[in-house]
Design goal:
The chain is about 35% helix and about 10% strand. By secondary structure, the chain is of the alpha+beta class. The strands form 2 sheets. The protein has a 4-stranded antiparallel sheet, with no helix packed on it. A 3-stranded antiparallel sheet has the order 4-5-6. β2 and β3 form a beta hairpin.
């Protein structure tokens, strides 16, 4: 009769088993954490990343002022790494984690730190021709009356930005500007392209997230002048195209400011 002798696992085998169990537990915990991630908590994590970036930049700039070695680029590198990790978690959890409707007529982009004007098609707003009416167009500038053709003296600067950045009333009392801020401006062409849903040719028209409010599938001015002083760049939210044209043409405008 053959006797079967029970084999006991070696210490190495037991250690390997414990390691496998630990890895499985960590993966399960990570899956649960990703599943519990919400848009609010995800945006909060990005907001903390922005605060960390600004603190790092302030520290490095202070070193420069003192004549000490500083490394400002490392701040941005760390920030971009943190942002990429947060975005990856959001993608895995299949949740939106970029834009926030601030409830005051603006949208904040937590990837670029920009705060955008939110357009409206409210009847009263459009009847009174307020600048944030989605169907109102503006000129960039006049082609005459300046030392150089195409000065920033069009209705985009006078009517829209002049209205948004009106921070005092006729008596000099503060009135707060648009959404409580007085530093609104036209976006650069590169900034304007960041809110396209996709690069040219975009398969969605208008080529923008609906959170920005009603958007005409047409050309929107940027602050970037073209090769000739009489021209400026625009982005077409019909298909994501970008080009330049004469500054005295009437195009749409969406104002922006640095929000984070």
């Amino acid at each position: 009769m053959t006797r079967i002798v029970p084999q006991h696992p070696t210490r190495a085998a037991r250690s390997l088993s414990r390691l496998v169990l630990a890895v499985v537990a960590l993966l399960l915990a990570a899956s649960v954490a990703d599943a519990a991630l919400t848009t609010g908590t995800c945006l909060a994590q990005k907001r903390v990343a922005w605060a960390t970036l600004r603190k790092c930049q302030g520290t490095e700039e202070a070193k420069q002022l003192k004549g000490k070695p500083a490394n400002l680029p490392q701040c941005l590198t760390k920030f971009q790494t943190a942002l990429a990790k947060i975005t990856a978690k959001a993608t895995k959890a299949m949740i939106a984690c970029r834009y926030r409707d601030n409830g005051d007529g603006t949208v904040t982009d937590y990837d670029t730190g920009l705060q955008w004007e939110q357009k409206t098609d409210n009847d009263i707003t459009c009847i009174l021709a307020f600048p944030n009416c989605s169907t109102r167009t503006f000129t960039w500038g006049s082609l005459s009356g300046c030392p150089f053709a195409g000065c920033p003296n069009g209705t985009a600067f006078i009517d829209l930005l002049g209205h948004f950045n009106n921070c005092v009333n006729f008596s000099g009392a503060p009135v707060g500007g648009f959404a409580g801020h007085c530093d609104w401006r036209l976006p650069t062409v590169a900034e304007l392209q960041t809110i396209l849903l996709a690069p040219y040719p975009c398969g969605t028209s208008p080529c923008i997230d609906p959170i920005f409010g009603p958007t005409v599938a047409s050309r929107y001015w940027s602050a970037t002048s073209g090769a000739f002083p009489s021209e400026a760049w625009f982005v077409n939210f019909l298909n994501g195209d970008a080009d330049d044209d004469f500054k005295n043409f009437n195009f749409y405008v969406r104002a922006v400011r640095t929000g984070l």
